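Annotated sample (chain length 377).
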Amino acid sequence: MVKINSQLAGFTDFLLPISAVLFLFPISPSFSSIPAIAWVIFTLINAPNYKRWALWPIAFATLVMTRTWLLNEMNHPAAAEDLLLVLISFLAASGVLRSNFRQLLSKIAIALPIILMQFDRLSNTVAGRNQTSYLIGLIGIVCICYFSVLLKSKYQRVQGIIASLIVAIMLLRSQSRAAIVATIIAFVFVWLIYERKRGSLLKMSLFASLISGVVLLTLSLIRPSDTIQFPAIYLKSDMGRLQIQSCYLQLPFSGENRFIYGIGFENPLKFCQHKVASGVLEHSHNIYIQIWANSGMLGAMGLLLFLILIVSQWRKKEIGLDPFLAKVGLATFVYILTQCSLDASIIYWPVTQVYTGIMLAIPFTVVRDPNMSTSVS
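Output written by the structure step:
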């Protein structure tokens, strides 16, 4: 029975790249939600025996909520169901055996060639430019980290370079500043962490600053074309975001009990709106501020507890991750943290929520099910 479950789990892992491919194509994002949520449900059901007492009730809750996610019935912007699916995906992924997690992430890399096929269009306009760019950044980090660990031959080095170029070109093509900045910060952070371990942090920091300056100067001199344009600073849009964030920051202080409970996620009233050239801003473009406004001090405390849990797990010296999982886990964690401060791309669609939960769960993956023999794991 365990052997069958392992084989089915390996097959089910292909649901993730399938969901990413469907999300990147110019069709309704609802189609991509089906394989993503199916992966979550199956992984919860196929959890290790000692985790089933907790994860099977969560599977029940997931099945009950499936209609809401598949039909996108939440009251956006920013619904409580969005964060719920992130956490459920996090718990589901934490039940995956560590020996299988690397295979899971390597299968996600299958979606990379599809990104190249989308080169002739900016993004899936139905899903949203920032949302598709956010997913491209996550997949790109997985692929680049995978090839950087496998650098054992010229062929694999070429694969790594090609993967890096595809991701860089598509992120520039997407014109999503949040995804570009978050990707750069994630890689620089992980690079400097490993250089510190080698004792050459200062030298590499100066080198990184020099290269960054040269790249920015070069990009500023490149004549914009219809194919690739470097995302500029749009003062009207950026000032609009700052103004609407200021509005959301003040909401918990604007009424009775709002400091404790916030204004609520499902409240139909639109408390903050700001018109910019691209349209009307209706959310804070910042997950942390949005949680503070919607759920007040209690929500902020919950978010802080969750972040403390993840950071404390990463700070443990004996997590036991192999080099690939360690690199991709740290990079995606920093990527998600940064992205949440620049935009709200992880909400709106189940695919980005599921991927976010999976990446955050990397340091919590199961080494071995204590109820199984070592030969099975």
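Annotation: The chain has a mean pLDDT of 77.
Annotation: The two ends are 13 Å apart (CA to CA).
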